[in-house]
Amino acid sequence: MMNIQKILLLLMVVATLGSCGKNEFSIEGEIKNAGTMNIRVFYYSSVEDKGNIVETAVPVVNDKLVYSGISERPTVLWFMSPNRDLLTPVYIEPGDELAISGEYGKPLSWKLVGNEIEEQWGEWREKHAKALESGNDRVINDAIAKYVKANRDNPVSALSLLCFYVKRDNAKDFDELWHLLSEKARPEDIVNAVDAMKNYVSAQAYKQKVTPLSLYTYADSLETIDVTKSPATLLYFWRQREEQHDSCVANIKRLHKLYKEPARLLVADINMDVDTIKWRRQARRDSIKDWSRYWAIGGEMNVALQRLEVGRTPYMIVVDSTGTQRYRGDNFSKAQKTVEEILKK
């Protein structure tokens, strides 16, 4: 009797043989130490009747990966772990037949052969893997900036900026680097594909109910923020040295005062710095006594916050008593208007 692994492998091969359309692409090869598992792929297909956004599981059998997809235009495909952790992005063009190789634990070193731009980008990812995995915004951005300045006509520069550059506190620097690139280096299809994926992720995050969040307080204790205990909740995410921080705090203070008696608005400000020293220094200067202050260990990667997809700061999320997100963004006026709409009911 044929075992399940052979059946899966056969299905993978059949799927590949059936892929022959001009808009189709294929990826086949070996990912060492992957064993038998499902790796996920996520990309923008630009195919309206197929739903545009593709997210699906790809079976890996005995380290062998075979996948065929469809896209009408060049795009960026993200490989993800079974738990949807991002592994690495790759560049894809319609008609590509790519051979993949690498080790599962080192996704930034994966090689895909068969597309010149992707081969160059793969070399760049491998060379800068240590920087990209450092979690240090400055180290990551400096590596990208150095390449961009030396390669203004290469699409690899745009791909690296769009997929790896940390914009949250560096939007101005990003814009300056982006405008260094020639039109040849920043093809519209790639910009549209990456924007579409980011918008999709943001929309999915909007649908997430805000469940109780356990975070550290200024008193070094673990406290749970339960949004169901208040008619409205304003979550304010921030980092030290943000130009908008003082004005944000002043605006939130005024709003909080309006609904302080009786207490109808819960405010929770959540610091996203990598260490507590910066947080405590700024917290002392803010001198806030009207609401609790929290620190998210690991920033955006904090387990309690990952589903909320807070990709930049300052950022606000307004939540009603059911845990439904009613506003997401960095516009205080819109956040205030949403709070007022909730509390009028």
Task: Give the count of structural domains.
Answer: 2
Q: Let me know the average pLDDT.
A: 87
**SS-derived structural category:** alpha+beta
Q: What is the distance, rounded to the nearest whole angstrom, between the alpha carbons of the first and last residues?
A: 65 Å
Number of strands: 15
Query: Which regions are unreliable across 5 or more consecutive residues at pLDDT < 50?
Result: 4-20
Strand count, sense and barrel status of the largest sheet are:
8 strands, mixed
User: Helix count, per DSSP?
Assistant: 10
Principal-axes geometry comes out as elongated
Helicity level? 25-40%
Q: From N to C, what is the helix and strand string?
A: HEEEEEEEEHHHHHHEEEHEHEEEH
Strand order, largest beta sheet: 6-5-2-3-4-1-7-8
Give the percentage of residues in beta strands: 25-35%
Radius of gyration: 23 Å
Question: Can you give a write-up of this model?
Answer:
Residues 4-20 have low confidence and may be disordered. α2 (116-127) packs across α5 (155-164) and α4 (137-150) packs antiparallel against α5 (155-164). The radius of gyration is 23 Å and the shape is elongated. The chain is 35% helix and 27% strand. It is α+β, with helices and mostly antiparallel strands. The chain has two domains: 4-205, no CATH class; 210-344, 3-Layer(aba) Sandwich (Glutaredoxin), CATH 3.40.30. The strands form two sheets. Strands 6-5-2-3-4-1-7-8 form an eight-stranded mixed sheet. The protein contains ten helices and 15 strands. The protein starts with a helix and ends with a helix. It has helices at residues 4-17, 116-127, 129-132, 137-150, 155-164, 171-178, 188-207, 245-258, 276-286, 332-344; strands at 24-32, 37-44, 53-61, 64-70, 75-80, 86-92, 97-103, 111-113, 213-217, 222-225, 232-238, 265-271, 292-295, 315-320, 325-329.
